[in-house]
Amino acid sequence: MKKLELVFHQCDVGKKGYLSREDLKIAVVMLCGYKPSKSETNILMENGTNKECPGVPLEQFVPLMGRKMSSEDPYEKTRQIFTAFDVHCRGFLKMDDFKSAFKRVAPRLPERTVLEAFRHADQDSDGHLSFKDFENVISYGLANTAALQEPQNNSFGFFSVENTYN
Questions:
Q1: Please, which residues have CB within 8 angstroms of residue 14's CB and are 6 or more apart in sequence?
Q2: Global pTM value
Q3: How many CB atoms lie within 10 A of CB 71?
Q4: What backbone phi and psi angles, to 5 degrees, belong to 92?
Q5: DSSP letters along 53-90, please?
Q6: How does pLDDT run across 21-42, given as a tens digit for each residue?
Q7: Is residue 49 within 8 Å of residue 56, measured between CB atoms?
Q8: How far is the C-alpha of 101 from the C-alpha of 119, rounded, in Å?
């Protein structure tokens, strides 16, 4: 629950006390590792808002995301993300695949950050990310998210929430 509260506070741009639609998308990326579709975001907003609040308040966010996260298999989710990135169905990702995927899911993320992520994930420096390499970097990002202590620290592994807003 502490992790969900931390993510909520990190994503509550302007400290409004609730997450807007855009804030909620970033929270899903931080917690689940993927950008939610429009229909998924609509469902989350419908299930998380009440009449007194224009967005998803903390007291709705925690149980909403808790249910969502408990129903997902982390290995399967990582496999789905890898498959979505592997548009050429090669079974590995090249730097261009990685950059292209991040342009779609995080268009404002600096290219330098994407390059660093690729280099970090490419353990054997062969220019290819296998699923195992990819799984390791996703696990690294999730472990760092769980280790965060301060709400003002807006990092997700080596990705920054604030980069998505700039």
A1: none
A2: 0.47
A3: 7
A4: -150, 165
A5: BSSEEHHHHHHHHHHHHHTS-HHHHHHHHHHHH-TT-S
A6: 999 999 998 888 788 899 999 9
A7: yes
A8: 16
